[in-house]
Automatic annotation (TrEMBL):
This protein's record includes keyword Signal: no
SUPFAM superfamilies linked: 6-phosphogluconate dehydrogenase C-terminal domain-like (SSF48179), NAD(P)-binding Rossmann-fold domains (SSF51735)
Top-level taxonomy: Bacteria, Bacillati, Bacillota, Bacilli, Bacillales
Primary gene name: proC
Organism for this UniProt entry: Robertmurraya kyonggiensis
Assigned EC number: 1.5.1.2
Record's catalysed reaction(s): L-proline + NADP(+) = (S)-1-pyrroline-5-carboxylate + NADPH + 2 H(+); L-proline + NAD(+) = (S)-1-pyrroline-5-carboxylate + NADH + 2 H(+)
Domain Pyrroline-5-carboxylate reductase dimerisation: 162-266
GO biological process: L-proline biosynthetic process
Alphabetic keyword roster: Amino-acid biosynthesis, Cytoplasm, NADP, Oxidoreductase, Proline biosynthesis
Protein name: Pyrroline-5-carboxylate reductase
Coiled-coil boundaries: none
Family statement: Belongs to the pyrroline-5-carboxylate reductase family.
Length: 266
């Protein structure tokens, strides 16, 4: 692809996407320009990814054909006010900020823009991202194809109705955090029984990866896959029973509700 991609904000989420994009070789480092607030981040990003990095948001906004806004929601509008006058008509604006709606984007820019609201996740860093996005009526089908190609370069992407976007962090944007907690807990259980810590992480992480692949690749219902593991009268059903007694599923659902409630307030 020949487009120039800009990132305003080069923190954890932007760097995960940049790493994923460059690893897939869909874009070369010279096609990416980023900005950040501190010299520390600028220098780190230059060194790690060989992309152009600056503290000048306007420079990035003026240059990019596709511009990611990857700053925190509380300074999102401040950044838009800084760059709105230099945005070209053809530029596609992609926000990754949680809770920022397409209406907010348009009204902050104060004009019709090509706007894309997205929710990626940090596994984009290893090319296994899961993103969801919705677009406004200025985005053409060609624009959408370009955007999808970028997101596919670091994982999977789903186009969803904007009314569902507030619910995406809970299921795929934030959920890597709870999965890491689950992996850590599995490893702790192994360590308790004497399994060396590093080996315990490998055992736990690969079991989670394998289970996820089974869901994606067999098309079988997760409940049926669970049943395959539970030998009648065996050990797994004892573990399942203990998880149910301790409200495992209810905890996950409650965590997701809390997440979505917060997104609506951001
Ligand atoms: N982390 C995640 O898993 C996910 C995050 N998101 C969204 O991504 C966005 C960024 O989150 P995350 O990457 O985690 O946060 P970080 O704090 O890691 O990154 C924020 C970045 O914004 C930069 N920044 C701060 N102020 C300015 C400014 N005035 N102009 C330009 N850049 C500025 C910071 O610069 P410096 O480094 O110099 O401080 C930093 O690089 C959020 O809106 C969040 O909702 C979405 C999905 C998942
Ligand atoms: O914690 C947050 O607000 C962001 C949104 C999804 C992941 N991180």
């Amino acid at each position: 692809m020949n487009e120039k991609i800009g990132f305003i904000g080069s923190g954890k989420m932007a760097q995960a996407m940049i790493k994923g994009i460059l690893s897939s070789a869909t874009f070369a480092p010279k096609q990416i320009k980023v900005s950040a607030k501190s010299d520390e981040t600028i220098n780190k990003v230059k060194e790690k990814y060989s992309v152009h990095a600056t503290k000048d948001n306007e420079e990035v906004a003026k240059w990019a054909d596709i511009l990611f806004l990857a700053v925190k929601p509380d300074i999102h509008n401040e950044v838009i006010q800084e760059i709105r006058s230099v945005i070209a008509e053809h530029t596609i604006i992609i926000t990754v900020a949680a809770g920022i709606t397409l209406d907010t984007l348009e009204s902050d820019f104060g004009k019709k823009i090509k706007a894309v609201r997205t929710m990626p996740n940090t596994p984009s860093f290893v090319g296994e991202g899961m993103s969801a996005l919705s677009i406004n009526d200025m985005v053409t089908s060609d624009d959408l194809e370009q955007v999808l190609a970028i997101f596919r370069s670091f994982g999977e992407v789903e186009v969803v109705a904007e009314r569902l976007m507030d619910s995406i962090p809970a299921i795929s944007g934030s959920s890597p955090a709870y999965v890491y907690m689950f992996i850590e807990a599995l490893a702790d259980g192994g360590v308790k029984d004497g399994i060396p810590r590093e080996q315990a992480y490998r055992l736990a992480a690969q079991a989670v990866l394998g289970a996820a692949k089974m869901v994606l690749e067999t098309g079988m219902h997760p409940g049926e896959l669970k049943d395959q593991v539970c030998t009648p009268g065996g050990a797994t059903i004892e573990a399942v029973s203990a998880l149910e007694l301790n409200g495992f599923r209810a905890s996950v659902l409650q965590a997701m509700e809390s997440c979505t409630k917060k997104i609506k307030k951001l």
